[in-house]
Amino acid sequence: MTKYFSQTAPTTALTAVYRLFTEILFNTNSISSYLRPIAGLFDAKYYNQSCPAKVVSVKNQNNNIYTVTLKVPKNLFGDFKAGQFVSLYVEKNSRRLQRTFSISSTPSELLRHGTIQLSISKQKHGAITPWLCDNISIGQHLHVSEAQGEFILKSNIKRLFIAAGSGITPIISMLRSMQLSELSSSTLIFYVRDKVETPFSDELTSLASAGLNVEIIETTSQGRFSAEHLAQCKINLLDCDAYLCGPKKMVDECATQLETLGASKNSIYYELFALTDNSTLDPDHPSQRKSEITVSYSKSGALSKVAPDTQSSLLELAEEQKLDALSGCRIGVCHQCVCTKTSGRVFNIKTGSISDSGEEEIQLCISKPIDNVALAL
Amino acid sequence: MTIPNREKLESFAKELDALRTETMAKVGDKDARYIRRLIGLQHCLEISSRILMVLGFISPALWVLAVLMLATAKILDNMEIGHNIMHGQYEWMNDPLINGRNFEWDIAGDADSWRRYHNHEHHTYTNVIGKDRDFGYGLLRLSDDIPWRPKNTWQIITYLNLSALFEWGIAYHEVAAERLFIGKKRKNSSLPISRRELKRAFFSKIGKQGFKDYIFYPLICWPVALQVLTGNAIANVLRNLWTSTIIFCGHFTDGIHTFRENEIKGESRGQWYYRQILGSSNIKGGKLFHIMTGHLSHQVEHHLFPDVPAPRYREMAPRVQEICLEYGIPYNTGRFGKQYFDVLKRITKYSFPTATAAQPTS
Ligand code: FES
């Protein structure tokens, strides 16, 4: 999924010879992986092979959301479209942890200054988001993947944006990158818990003065998305595209309502904002939170659906799907069954601990899913 | 050797589990810095030894130094770095550079093949006769469980040869088990790849390794080709002798025990721990010595906790020893000289038919 862990490049005769040569001399598939540990003796940033991103500034949007500006090397990062996200890799006590965040800055800022901004909301039980805010320092290197995601602007310039909470981040990038003519034909409905705490309030004011129809709605006093809120903004749903971003529940509700109000399904685009940074959440009663857990296998496209109190290990589940998962001892000793988990938390049967929620290596034979889990199998 | 019942060993297992949890909680920056720096230094050592080898024509002393440096680089790569990374000891870092699944090492044996039989067979079925083929490597008779054959009479010579050619033994290990070239095809093979793939991987790795040390480097240093060739060969043999000696001291000393397949059926975690301790022995020494053995000088701790970063074994060892004392379980450790003498004694002792030995059936 990310360019971080995959090392596949198109093989031409020349690269094949190069690879054979480095395998013979250095037992790796690139000279750089042999030299990086040496360079790392002098500067730790060389240990990483993803795209190093230097922290330029950190700014609080409100009590909960902070914006990190990162300088990225042009050749490695490439470019992005407003609305896309990146994987951010940070090292916490030398453990590399991964989270995905939407880019809140614009492609033109990347062109001009070589920077991107990530606006990160601190999640209460998160292992990364609150910690990073306190431990980040200017000049430090973090690592990002290339930009990914399909939540991008389409050609129709009549647009309705509906965001909830930190779901504003990809949308603010879209709005910032829009022309004046596009802004004046578009509307933003933004749900916040408390108006005083509205993130990006300065930007929203200037976007409003540039012609964008901005409606900020306090959920505590005015409730969640409803037809009246829509009516307030005087939008013709029939000829505009809708862009939704927020928690799954909010997106689902909005989408159904929009459809009943006459919007066509094909003109609704959305991005779900899952609570991805939740590795220390209490898993005591997973069954009360979910009735079913899905394990998805990204390479084969297969799926397993299991009860939350399943006794099967991920290895057994993968074998049921006839996937070719390696195994050996099946008791957590040999590490033959190690596989990359791209997201979701697992319970380690052997140590009784709960994994991180991001991308990492796990032993399938002693792991049980406790969230929806995605495996690179 | 009979194994105590599971109830007896339950709290014993709990204490060892707790020790593991406690240690893993401490693992972090320090361990990462250590392994990363060691890899960097090992690469520097290898590069400089290859350069110095060429400069050997200036003075033989330089050449000798280069050979020792190259042997050291190979030992570090194989033991403290490769062996430990491939056990998944640094998996918690999620660092693609230090990934146990992809690591390949500077030795004739293919890493994938080694990962299969060593991590699984040897570490799960340690010293179970017939299951752990590391016990005597199918060449040596090291306990009464194995019937005596005339060829055992000169097994001390076989042992010395095996020691000097150890890397080829490692390369051939799985191929031999699958009886790829000689013998009848293994009946209950769990090989996850085809026999053809195994054959390819086997030849590919020994080819690459042989090409590097015996063709490529000598050729590019043409005027001094012979000096480079012999230097590389000696470095490889030194590494072979060192690794095999350390490994023999870890599993074939006097006090170690063997087990029968039927004893380990439905084994509990405590019983597994118990078997690991009785099947292994430690070597005492200083920090540098431990690093040079890849911490296999802490074979007991390694077998109990194969995926805990090895340098942590040093601080775990006193606790393990205490726990063993508490439960009256023998903990085998000694100075290098003593342990090695024990190994030689064992090899000689079982060269001859012993009174209680089972007789060969055919
Ligand atoms: S199969 Fe051996 S650790 Fe999972």
In brief:
The complex is a heterodimer of chains A (377) and B (362). Chain A is an alpha/beta fold and 377 residues long. In chain A, 26% of the residues lie in helices and 27% in strands.
Give an overview of the whole structure.
The complex is a heterodimer of chains A (377) and B (362). Chain A is an alpha/beta fold and 377 residues long. Chain A has helices at residues 13-26, 31-40, 74-77, 107-113, 129-135, 168-176, 180-184, 201-209, 219-222, 227-232, 248-260, 286-289, 314-320, and strands at 51-60, 65-71, 85-92, 95-102, 115-121, 141-144, 159-164, 186-192, 213-218, 241-246, 268-272, 293-297, 303-306, 338-343, 346-348, 360-363, 367-369, 373-375. Chain A is globular, with a radius of gyration of 23 Å. Chain B starts with 9 loop residues before the first helix and ends in a 13-residue tail after the last helix. In chain B, helix 7 crosses helix 8 (225-251). Residues 357-362 of chain B have low confidence and may be disordered. Chain B is built from 13 helices and 2 strands. Helices cover 58% and strands 2% of the residues of chain B. The interface between A and B is large, with 40 and 45 residues. FE2/S2 (inorganic) cluster binds at residues 327-330, 332-337, 363, 365 of chain A.
Task: Break the fold down into its secondary structure elements and pairings.
The complex is a heterodimer of chains A (377) and B (362).
Chain A: H1 13-26, H2 31-40, E1 51-60, E2 65-71, H3 74-77, E3 85-92, E4 95-102, H4 107-113, E5 115-121, H5 129-135, E6 141-144, E7 159-164, H6 168-176, H7 180-184, E8 186-192, H8 201-209, E9 213-218, H9 219-222, H10 227-232, E10 241-246, H11 248-260, E11 268-272, H12 286-289, E12 293-297, E13 303-306, H13 314-320, E14 338-343, E15 346-348, E16 360-363, E17 367-369, E18 373-375
Parallel strand pairs in A: 7-8, 7-10, 8-9, 10-11, 12-18
Antiparallel strand pairs in A: 1-2, 1-6, 2-5, 3-4, 3-6, 12-13, 14-16, 14-18, 15-17
Chain B: H1 10-26, H2 29-54, H3 60-86, H4 111-124, H5 155-164, H6 166-177, H7 195-220, H8 225-251, H9 269-278, E1 282-284, H10 287-292, H11 299-304, H12 313-326, E2 333-335, H13 336-349
Parallel strand pairs in B: 1-2
The complex binds FE2/S2 (inorganic) cluster (FES).
